[in-house]
Structures are given as C-alpha cells and as structure tokens.
Design a protein that fits this description.
336 residues, TIM Barrel, eight-stranded parallel β-sheet, two-stranded antiparallel sheet, 16 strands, globular
Length: 336
C-alpha cells in the first residue's frame, strides 16, 4: 500500500506527495486579495523538501504562478542532480504581472491564456524554473474554457509530449465535466481536485475509473482546519488566507466540534488528526495521491509518515463519514 500507480501512465509513486503552494510565499488576485499561507524562507523550504524525500516522497506538485515562480525555482533547486528519481507536476493557464509597480500588491493575476503560444511560453518558463527538460504531469490551472479552446489545448499539449517537454497532462479542477474536454487526448492522465473529510466528489472518482486516470488531491487538510490546530481565539497574520476567520461559527466551528469526536475514535489507532485525514483519502480510492502542503520540517514529517501507515479501515472511514455527514459538501456541485 506504500506505492501507487498513476493510472495509465504506469508511473509508480509513494502514496503521499508534497504540495508546493505554500513555499511560493504570497501572491495576489487582481483585486488585491492575497493568496498565501504566510511568509516563507527558501532554505527552510528546501530542508522540509529534503525531509519529505528522506521519508519516501517522490511526487511534487507546484504551479508557475505560486509566488511568481518562486515555488518552482525552490523545488528545482532541491531536486537538482537527481531529477529522474521524482515525478514533477506543475500547471499553466493563468497570467500574472510580477512587476506591477504597486508595493502593496506586487504580483497580481491579470488574465488567463490557453492559446498555443501562451501554453508554450508557460512551459518553457516552468522548465527553466524547475531546472529540468521535461514535466511529468502538466495541468490546466484556470477555470472553464470553451470546447473550441479545449481542442487547441489538447493539440498543443500532445505536441509538447511529442517534443519530449511533457509526459502527460490533465486539469486542476473540481469538475469532471471539464476533464471530459481533455480526456480524448492520448496522453490525458488525470485530474487534480479537492477531496477530504468535508469535501466529497464521487462524480470525479467515477470519471477517473472511466478514463483510467489518477487524482492528485489538493487541500487534503482543508487549509489546516483538519489538523485541529485552530482554536476559538486563533489569530492568523494578514498575509495568510485564513486572516480574519471566525473559528467558532459556521461550518468551521462545526468541523472543529466534529474533530474532537474524531480524536476519540483515533485514541487506539496511533495516528494524529493529520495522518487520519490523509489516511481517509487513501482509503477512498487507490487512484488517489494526497498532496498536503507544508512550510516546516515538522509538517513534512507528519505528512510523509503516512507512507508507512496503512489507509484507514473501511469501518473507520464509515464512522468518519457519519460524523461529517451534516457538513460534508459535494465539491463537484460548487461553482468555480
């Protein structure tokens, strides 16, 4: 159970990957809203990556826009000289102004680009950032596109496969209908989407089965909520996505109450909440690879040690689903 095959790619990876959004540091939507889990230091990020590797991680997911390319560059530095030992996933499709001239919003989203020229330009930049000559899994990283655009996207991605610059492609989206727009491509291989104790997506699991695809599971810890670290009076810095949240009200408050019940269920299991949350996803389907984020060595250790643990038992998964039944959301039905 430590190793999983990435669908029709036949690539074998260990059961937990590392999501590299957080190590890119802050960047911004066009309106100035920050996209960040706080400030980071590159040397600490590399130490955390190294610790994950020591514990068996061999799949990493990033994107060309995380921190204006900073995440890709840090990952490329960490893997330099041993690239072929790992599977790298990254993304394209959003266009950013990394020199806006506004000190308050220095990096901001300015649009989307699915054109052949835009895809090729993004791919070349990612290859440079990652210090590699190929990308294992290249993903669309924007919202919807028209069916006409999708035809050109698939054509361009297949050309990049033929040129040896990428190996497989997919889409980072919670909606299987979007994936269907790419699935006719010979080298379409999978999807990245949200699934955890409070976000279900059975339609996506069905889609993966029908297309022999794999799923990278983003946000498996729901922004840290499922780790149990947030308290009634938790304060987060202004450069953090969770700034200003009320941790006592609404679904966040409900989730925290249920997590205390889950702690009791885990009393004899030997796992902390983080490891139970990741083990839950592994138990949902053998096509899934959770890619939890991290900023510290400790977080990398807690996440990566799940490789040595079995997925949760069917009985425990059933108990968890009952606990979360009233607050669970079908993510395939969420707009975005």
């Amino acid at each position: 159970m430590k190793t999983r095959v990435l669908g029709k790619t036949k690539l074998k990876v260990n059961s937990i990957g590392m999501g590299c959004w957080a190590i890119g540091g802050p960047f911004y939507h066009s309106g100035g809203k920050i996209i960040s889990y706080g400030q980071v230091k590159d040397d600490e990020s590399i130490q955390a990556l190294e610790r994950g590797i020591e514990l068996g991680v061999n799949l990493f997911d990033t994107a060309n826009n995380y921190g204006g390319g900073r995440s890709e560059k840090v990952l490329g530095k960490a893997l330099k000289g041993r690239r072929d030992d790992f599977v790298i996933a990254t993304k394209f499709g959003t266009v950013w102004d990394f020199d806006s001239g506004d000190p308050e919003v220095p990096m901001r989203l300015v649009g989307r680009d699915h054109t052949p020229e835009g895809i090729r330009k993004a791919c070349e930049i990612s290859l440079q950032n990652l210090q590699t000559d190929y990308i294992d899994f290249y993903q669309v990283h924007s919202g919807n596109m028209t069916s006409e655009e999708a035809v050109d996207v698939v054509t361009t991605l297949e050309e990049l496969v033929s040129e040896g610059k990428i190996r497989y492609f997919g889409w980072s989206t919670d909606h299987p209908g979007r994936g269907a727009m790419l699935a006719h491509g010979k080298h379409f291989a999978g999807m990245q989407f949200r699934l955890n104790m409070i976000h279900s997506n059975n339609e996506m699991l069905k889609f993966l089965d029908e297309n022999n695809g794999f799923g990278l599971i983003k946000n498996p810890l729901s922004g840290g909520l499922l780790t149990g670290k947030y308290k009634d009076d938790s304060k987060v810095p202004r450069d953090h996505n969770w700034h200003g949240r009320d941790f006592t009200e609404g679904r966040i408050g409900q989730t925290r109450v249920v997590l205390e019940e889950l702690r009791e269920l885990l009393a004899n299991d030997g796992r902390i909440l983080v490891q139970a949350s990741l083990g839950y996803i592994l138990a949902k389907h053998d096509r899934l690879i959770p890619i939890p984020g991290f900023k510290t060595v400790k977080q990398a250790e807690e996440n990566s040690k799940v490789i040595e643990l079995c997925p949760l038992s069917n009985k425990l998964v059933s108990q968890i689903d009952k606990l979360f039944a009233e607050i669970q959301i079908d993510q395939s039905q969420v707009e975005g």
